[in-house]
Amino acid sequence: MIAVRHRDQVAVAGDGQVSIGNTIVKAGARKVRKLYGDRVVAGFAGAAADAFTLFARFEAKLEEHRGNLPRAAVELAKDWRSDRVLRRLEALLAVADREHSFIVSGTGDVIEPDDGLIGIGSGGPYALAAARALIAHSDLDAKAIATEAMRVAATICVFTNDHLTVEVL
Question: Which DSSP symbol is given to 99?
Fold first, then answer.
């Protein structure tokens, strides 16, 4: 999964592959969605059921904090780390709006990258490298960068496919 904040546009792209061990069990999962009246976009990597729980919790935090993304991300991370049930969830979230991008984890991490780019999941490092190169050497917009970066990752990582979902703000 890749999140790209570039030129007043935010794009998050996720592949559709769900694997259990070395077996692909689904090729067209939707791992990216818009939240809070289409003002925030979020994507996940990790266990699907865990991620859907986290999406619901994160959306509740966004509502509670009236769309304040940094505050909602910090509050989710605090709950995730301290709650007996939540802390067993195995996933990462990437969340972004027009001003901020964060990686949120169950260990309490809320990380805002310096360059507005986030890559999580098995293919995340490959997509991140591709996105950085595309930003530096092309005139593509955020959606095109996210799409192409995920396509590159899908050609390298066996746990990443090219059935993409891309959401743009």
Answer: S
Report all structural domains of the chain as residue ranges with CATH numbers, in order of start: 2-168 (3.60.20.10)
Tell me if 147 sits within 8 A of 8, measured CB to CB.
no
**What's the distance, CA 91 to chain centroid?**
10
Separation between Cα atoms, residue 162 and residue 152, nearest integer Å: 9
Element (H, E) at 147: helix 142-156
pTM: 0.92
Separation of alpha carbons 80 and 95, rounded Å: 15
Distance CA 11, CA 19 (A): 24
Question: What contacts 28, CB < 8 A, 6 or more positions away?
Answer: 16, 163
Lowest-confidence range among 51-65, 68-82, 85-99, 135-149? 85-99
Q: CA-to-CA distance for 145 and 118, rounded, in angstroms?
A: 12
Classify residue 102 as left (phi > 0), alpha (psi -120 to 50) or beta: beta
